[in-house]
Structures are given as C-alpha cells and as structure tokens.
Amino acid sequence: MRPARLRRPLAALFAAAAAGLALLALRPGPPPSVRVLAAARDL
C-alpha cells in the first residue's frame, strides 16, 4: 500500500515541474541589442 500513498504527492510534483518547464520554454528571448562605444570624456 506504500506506492498508493505516494501517488498523489508525486503527481503534484510532476505537474509542478511540467508547469515550470513549460514557462521556461515559452518565455520570450532577449530583445536584439547593439553594442555602442562612447567616450568617457571629451576628446
């Protein structure tokens, strides 16, 4: 009877892990950017 007692917590754990991984997979990537050089003081 021990596996039957752990079934619900394991299902909840796997559901939470699946939701977390889905959020990571669906998040948007970083926006495109361009590196710009600037002088620290007047040249």
TrEMBL record:
Name used for this protein in its record: Flp pilus assembly protein CpaB
Organism: Actinomadura geliboluensis
Source organism phylogeny: Bacteria, Bacillati, Actinomycetota, Actinomycetes, Streptosporangiales
